[in-house]
Every structure is written in C-alpha cells, then in structure tokens.
C-alpha cells in the first residue's frame, strides 16, 4: 500500500518527467526545476488533473551564498513557491534557481496565480530577483529611493543611507549612514526566580 506522500511523488514525477527533481524529506515533497522549464512546469502543476495545484500559498526569494556554512557551490539565488491542491489535499514546494548570480532572472507565474503578483514584487525588492513577464515589478516594502536589496547576505547591517526630516528644507532627505558600529551585549538576568510563578 502506498502512502499519500508516495502517491504525490509518483504523480509529480509522471507529470513533470525528467525535467524535474522530486525529493521527499521530513514529510514534505520538493520539486526542483530548471529556470528554462519553470513556467511550463508550474502550468503543468496547476492544470494536470492528477495534480490540480490550484493555489499558490507563498513565493519567496532565497540567498544561498553562505548556505551550509559556505559549502554550497550552486547558484546563489532561488525562488521558492508553496502550492496547495484543494482537490487532493496535497502540498508541494517548488524551487527554481536563477542561472545568473549577477542578474537573477526567472519567469513570472503571476499569469498563472494572481497571488504571485505581490510575492514576486517582495522577492524583487528584498533579494533583487527579477521575474520575466511580471507587469508591475517595483519595490513593495522598501522606499522607492532605497538602494540595494536588504535580504541579500552581503547587504550591510546598517544599510547605505539613512533618511530624516530636515526642518530647514521642510522635506525628507537622504544622507550617508552616520551610525557608529557597536557590539551589542545581551542583558544578563541574575534573579533566581526569574520566569517562575
């Protein structure tokens, strides 16, 4: 007798063929597809009657630059999607790596799932991942004048610029960061009864 997870793996492998790597670990199934096959694979996941992943729950960017304590040697940026099939009560994670680290580019799935619109904008804003075919790819969480992508692992903790209101000019101005780097030391609680009731 096959388990539900094994049935999902078999259905995914059958529908996607050799173009996708399907793995299961810790009760979850992950599909890794190449950037060139990403849009077609996602359409198959949505439209194949054996799968019917009709909801995109989440899409986020990932920076693998120091993954595995620096042992990672693959592409740096990936877009990771989580899909849900209501008919089959299945969930799957789909990962696509951008082939170029200097200009990470993958296809947009906003035409397949409308919920991908803001998720892709967030991945662009925070990681700099570009989504080909997205009709409104602009910043969503940071200011329009923001420089860089703050979730990249090489982004400085204090940022590049700070903004403040200048009462003389009566407007918000940007200036280089003036924060002095400091070491933060945690407060030590020495009460013996701390946390007990």
Instruction: Give the SSE order as H and E letters.
Output: HEEHEEEEHEEE
Radius of gyration: 22 Å
Helix content: 10-25%
Percentage of β-strand residues: 25-35%
Number of helices: 3
Spans of at least 5 consecutive residues with low confidence:
none
The CATH fourth-level homologous superfamily of the domain at 4-137 = NADH:ubiquinone oxidoreductase Nqo5 subunit
Strand order of the largest sheet: 1-2-5-4-3
Number of β-strand runs: 9
Let me know the average pLDDT: 88
The top level CATH class name of the domain at 4-137: Alpha Beta
Spatial gap, N to C terminus:
51 Å
The assigned CATH architecture of the domain at 4-137 is 2-Layer Sandwich
- Briefly note the CATH topology name of the domain at 4-137: Beta Polymerase, domain 2
Helix/strand/pairing class, anyone? alpha/beta
- Shape field: globular
Please explain how this structure is put together.
It is a single chain. The protein has 197 residues and is an alpha/beta fold. Helices cover 18% and strands 28% of the residues. The protein is built from 3 helices and 9 strands. The strands form 3 sheets. The protein has a 5-stranded mixed beta sheet with strand order 1-2-5-4-3. Strands 6-7 form a two-stranded parallel sheet. A two-stranded antiparallel sheet has the order 8-9. α3 links the parallel β6 (105-107) and β7 (130-132). The protein is globular, with a radius of gyration of 22 Å. The termini are far apart. The mean pLDDT is 88.
